[in-house]
Structure formats: structure tokens, C-alpha cells
Amino acid sequence: SLCKNNRKKPKKSGIMAKLEGNKWMVENLDGKTDIVIEKDLELKHSVYIYNAKNSLVTVKGKCNSIVLDKCTKSGVIFDNAVAALEIINCKGAKAQINQSVPSVTIDNTSGATIFFGGESKNASVYTSKSTEVN
Known about the structure:
Blueprint: E1 16-20, E2 23-27, E3 35-37, E4 46-50, E5 56-69, E6 75-88, E7 91-100, E8 103-107, E9 110-116, E10 124-128, E11 131-133
Parallel strand pairs: 2-4, 3-5, 4-5, 5-6, 6-7, 6-8, 7-9, 8-10, 9-11
Antiparallel strand pairs: 1-2
């Protein structure tokens, strides 16, 4: 006999911005510019932005670190990161640092623009396998 599987496939959760342990996971954004992480942000938290397209994430307050991974024409605006900002495997990434971050790492990225404000002008910048970095 033929049996049909009546279970529905789980819907792909399109937009996700949630806290898992000490890491804010922001994944699969597409054309979103209104994602703000502020309410429960703590110094021990890191923010991981993955697979964003044409999107902008704003992080208000102080966190440990921020990572943009596999993002296209997307960016982040943040106040303070006590460890680092990392941009990895991106195409057309932008970051605006309003206050401070000690180091910025750009790896395997084509087209990265960083705006340094406040005390962040003294940040160390490291690049590897990247082009068009401003």
C-alpha cells in the first residue's frame, strides 16, 4: 500500500533575532532595516549576524563582540563592542561604530566600509583575503 506522509514540512523561519545563551543570533534577513537589539543586551553577549541580504541591524548599548558572516549588501550600527567587530565572507558589508571597539577584522570579504566614530578611531584593523576595504 502507498502511504502518504501527512506531516507538514516545518516552515522556514525567515527572520530570526533571538538570544541563545550568551549569543544573539540574527539570521536570514532579507531587506530588513528595523532590527534593533537593545532591551536585554548585556556586556557578556555577542551578536552573530548571518546570511543577511540588503539589511541593517542596530545594536544599542555595550556587548562583547559582533560578527557579520556571509552577508550581502548589509550592515550593522553599534555603540560599543569590548572585544571586536568581525566581518567574514561578506559582499558589500558596512559597519558604523558610534563609540568604541578595540579591533576590527575583515576576512574573505569584497567591499567593506567601516565608519569610525568616538573612541573607535584608535581601533586596530586587520584584513585578510579582502578587497575594496574603506
